[in-house]
Amino acid sequence: MKDMNEISNSTPRSSSESRAEMIEVVLPNDGNPLGNILGGRVMHLIDIAGAIAAHRHSRGPVVTASMDSVDFTHAIRVGQMVVLQSQITAAFRTSMEVKVDVYCEDYNTSRRLRTSTAYLTFVAIDAAGKPRPVPPLLVTTEAEKLLYQEACLRRQERLARHQRNKGPA
């Protein structure tokens, strides 16, 4: 007989149920000597925002399995706000891909500019730290279907890279 957690984890969930937004002010201790936020700080925030979306979808603890390349296309200045928006793009057996868009927002004008996008893979874990099943992702809109298809392609690339990196036994 299935327990309640297994039953709730077999019910498909929409990406809107997992969406999250984090906003932080970039303080001087977050910055480098040029007055820009440190790239490592942005990556840390990306990981947190992604984990929140993955946790919301899986309804339990998750661990980061991978982060795809992150390109910083625009600087985020000390004194601006950094805005991170995350959502699930695909759910597999025990893992999920999460898209995180990063923006800087000017305090005075409220103007937002996207500064980077990252794709992360999270694995849901149980109390023993072992992978556990996650709910399927309910994909309904054309935009969600495209995100899902792209996520499946990225997953194939990640799995192939993982195999190459394992090397001979």
Q: Give the strand order of the largest sheet, numbering strands 1, 2, ... along the chain.
A: 2-4-5-6-3
Q: Please mark out the parts with pLDDT under 50 across 5 or more consecutive residues, or reply none.
A: none
Give the CA-based shape: globular
Number of domains: 1
Proper CATH architecture: Roll
Estimated share of beta-strand residues: 25-35%
Overall strand count: 7
CATH homologous superfamily identity: Hotdog Thioesterase
* CATH C-level class: Alpha Beta
> Kindly state the mean pLDDT as a whole number?
92
Oligomer: single chain
* Topology pattern, helix = H, strand = E: HEEHEEEEEH
Query: What is the count of helical runs?
Result: 3
The biggest beta sheet reads: 5 strands, antiparallel
Radius of gyration computed on alpha carbons: 17 Å
Plain-language structure description:
There is one protein chain. 30% of the residues lie in helices and 30% in strands. Strand 5 (95-105) and strand 6 form a beta hairpin. It is built from three helices and seven strands. It has one domain (4-166): Thiol Ester Dehydrase, Chain A, CATH 3.10.129.10. With 169 residues, the chain is an alpha+beta fold. The protein has helices at 4-8, 39-58, 142-166, and strands at 13-14, 20-25, 62-67, 81-91, 95-105, 112-124, 137-138. The strands form two sheets. The protein has a five-stranded antiparallel sheet. A two-stranded parallel ribbon has the order 1-7.
